[in-house]
TrEMBL record:
Pfam families: AAA_31
Positions of the AAA domain: 3-178
Entry superkingdom: Bacteria
PANTHER family hit by this protein: P-LOOP CONTAINING NUCLEOSIDE TRIPHOSPHATE HYDROLASE, PARA FAMILY PROTEIN CT_582
SUPFAM superfamilies xrefs: P-loop containing nucleoside triphosphate hydrolases
UniProt name for this protein: AAA family ATPase
Length: 255
């Protein structure tokens, strides 16, 4: 059976979206059937996968407000094996519109249950906050993957994130597990990156992916071309690292 992975960290700019786009695309390149779900109103996973976020009838917003079916919300991309439930700025109002709705923590899960068997992996890009959208991602997911940027304040906020995951596990989704941590934007030239990696290893008792994503300018350029890294610059260090991460994710047997 497939695995649903929520990519979460309430800190912005740590590489959630970059990881969502490129892990999805590299898993698809490895022959896996992938659905990416963009749960961030910024819609950067949507545009980064080449879908025009301002020209969409059915997005994750319409899905969550029960204005379309999940099959109607799934869009093709130009990438083989990779489909997308897109998002755009409309989603920023969803939090309020969901107030008072029964079981609002399970809206996404109840929809995804219809189609989960069609995919090998479903990758959910979370917004940079611990809000109802993130809770929906965590009730839908089997695991949470936490990107951590290799910088001085890397661990700031991580204890709230772990607490949120624990609460969701206790109250809403007892089967939720940690997928693990992936380090992003690593710069081998600085001692700081090495210190952050050591610090996280000593403080977080969870799986740490061996693949460390380097800081690579091609990763930052690719979204403006609407392409994932393996299609934008297949030989770049960024592409190689996300391919290795995809392989590690596929090879995990302990989940
Ligand atoms: P988040 O989704 O957590 O807010 P993003 O994935 O959008 O973070 O990344 C924040 C910024 O950093 C973006 O401009 C992105 O292109 C850039 N970026 C992310 N990962 C890397 C990397 N490994 N190397 C270089 N730039 C990166
Ligand atoms: Mg993002």
């Amino acid at each position: 059976m497939g695995r649903i992975i929520a990519i979460a960290n309430q800190k912005g700019g740590v590489g959630k979206t970059t990881t969502s786009i490129n892990l999805s695309s590299c898993l698809a390149e490895a022959g896996k059937k992938i659905l990416a779900i963009d749960l961030d109103p910024q819609g950067n996973t949507t545009s980064g996968l080449g879908v025009d976020k301002d020209d969409l009838e059915n997005t994750v917003y319409e899905l969550m407000l029960d204005e379309c079916t999940i099959r109607e919300s799934i869009h093709k991309t130009e990438i083989e094996n990779l489909t997308l439930i897109p998002s755009n700025v409309n989603l920023s109002g969803a939090e309020i519109e969901l107030l008072g709705i029964n079981d609002k923590e399970y809206i996404l899960k109840n929809a995804v249950d219809y189609i989960r068997d069609d995919y090998d992996f479903i990758i959910i890009d979370c917004p940079p906050s611990l809000n109802m959208l993130t809770v929906n991602a965590m009730t839908t997911a089997d695991t949470v993957l936490v990107p951590i940027q290799c910088e001085y304040y890397a661990l700031e906020g991580i204890s709230q994130l772990i607490h949120t995951i624990d609460l969701v596990q206790e109250r809403l989704n007892p089967d939720l597990k940690m997928e693990g941590v992936v380090f992003t934007m690593y710069d081998s030239r600085t001692n700081l990156s090495n210190e952050v990696v050591d610090n996280v290893k000593n403080n977080l008792h969870t799986t740490i992916y061996k693949t460390i994503i380097p800081r690579n300018v091609r990763l930052a350029e690719a979204p403006s071309h609407g392409l994932p890294i393996n299609l934008y610059d297949s030989r770049s260090a960024g592409a190689e690292s996300y391919r290795l991460l995809a392989k590690e994710v596929i090879d995990r047997e302990d989940i």
